[in-house]
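Quick one, C-alpha cells below. Sequence please?
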C-alpha cells in the first residue's frame, strides 16, 4: 500500500516537473507581447490625416482637435456639436493662450470646416496651432 502511495506521489511530482517549463514559457511570452506591443491613443472619431514628406516629429499637445471626414468635431476624447465645440475651445484657449494645439483633420474633410476651426481658434486667441499629417513613404 505504501508503495502505491509513493508511486502516485512520484507520478504527480513528475507531472508538475513537466508542466512548469510550459507555464514559464507562457508567462515569458505574455510579458514579451505586453512590452513589445504598441500602445497608441484611440481617436474619438475616425480620422485619416493627409500625407506629407515632412520628417519633423509632432510634439504631443495638451489640446487636440479632431475633424472627421463627415465634419464631426471632437475636442480631446469628446465628440461635440459645433456650438458646444466653439464654447469649449474658446474656454480652453482663454485659460492658457500659449498652449500648443494640435488639429488632426481627415484628408477628405471639406476645407471650409478646417478653416472654421482655425478661425475659432484665432478669435479665441490661440497662438500655437499645428496641423497633423502622416509621413508619406519616400518615392
Amino acid at each position: 500500500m505504501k508503495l502505491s502511495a509513493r508511486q502516485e506521489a512520484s507520478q504527480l511530482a513528475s507531472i508538475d516537473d513537466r508542466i512548469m517549463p510550459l507555464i514559464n514559457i507562457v508567462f515569458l511570452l505574455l510579458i514579451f507581447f505586453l512590452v513589445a506591443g504598441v500602445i497608441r491613443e484611440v481617436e474619438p472619431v475616425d480620422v485619416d490625416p493627409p500625407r506629407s514628406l515632412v520628417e519633423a516629429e509632432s510634439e504631443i499637445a495638451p489640446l487636440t482637435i479632431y475633424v472627421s471626414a463627415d465634419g464631426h468635431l471632437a475636442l480631446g476624447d469628446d465628440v461635440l456639436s459645433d456650438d458646444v465645440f466653439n464654447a469649449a475651445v474658446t474656454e480652453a484657449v482663454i485659460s492658457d493662450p500659449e498652449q500648443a494645439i494640435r488639429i488632426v483633420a481627415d484628408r477628405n474633410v471639406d476645407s471650409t470646416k478646417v478653416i472654421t476651426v482655425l478661425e475659432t481658434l484665432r478669435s479665441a486667441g490661440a497662438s500655437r496651432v499645428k496641423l497633423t499629417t502622416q509621413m508619406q513613404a519616400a518615392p
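The mean pLDDT is 83. The CA atoms of residues 56 and 135 lie 9 Å apart.
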